[in-house]
Amino acid sequence: MNTLSAARITPDDLLSSIAGVLAGEHDLVANCANVAALIFEALPRVNWAGFYLLRGDELVLGPFQGRVACTRIALGAGVCGTAAARRETVVVPDVHAFPGHIACDAASESEIVIPVLSGDRLIGVLDIDSPVKDRFTPQDRRMLEEAVALLVRALPAPPSAPSSASPSA
Question: Which of 49, 22, 27, 53 has the alpha carbon at shortest distance from 37?
Fold first, then answer.
């Protein structure tokens, strides 16, 4: 069981705090829940932080902190679906200027979405919204991409492929 001090988490503490809660835990949902909670607490001027997980050909709402959210997002739709389809981080300074933006919370003004990739396999996306335009800096992007990298490293290794060599007789 991982515990954190009662002191408020700051952006400077975020990555070490994430590493601490992920240590020894390999469950995706549990880890996403803790990572979302830490990000929501550590980053100022954020009104939503959470994950959408790939299920078939769509993103399905996973662990999050914030107001009630959209439950399903098609790949390629909105900021989350775009980041998932492109498999790259998308930073949107003004969500109202993003074609096809899906407004789950009318208070959101800017957004950053980081794909969660294990090798070539898309697991989902980390989505963070802010009620402030142009909220997310290049430093935020690097820190959040590292947070996702820590999450991915905590996942169990995928099962190895069966050997193609046939047993000799």
Answer: 49
Residue from 146, 58, 142, 47 nearest 95 by CA: 47
Sign of the Cα pseudo-torsion (136, 140, 144, 146, in order) = positive
CA distance 88 to 44: 24
Contacts of 169 (CB under 8 A, 6+ apart): none
Residue with tokens 């240590």: 23
Q: pLDDT tens, position by position, for the chain (169 residues)? A: 445 555 688 899 999 999 999 999 999 999 999 999 999 999 999 999 999 999 999 999 999 999 999 999 999 999 999 999 999 999 999 998 988 878 777 789 899 999 999 999 999 999 999 999 999 999 999 999 999 999 999 998 766 655 555 454 4
Q: Name the packing angle between helices 28-42 and 138-153 (round to 10°).
A: 160
pTM of the prediction?
0.88
Residue type, 109: E
Asked if residues 84 and 122 have their Cβ atoms less than 8 Å apart, the reply is yes
CA 103 to chain centre: 18
**Cβ–Cβ < 8 Å for 52, 127:** yes
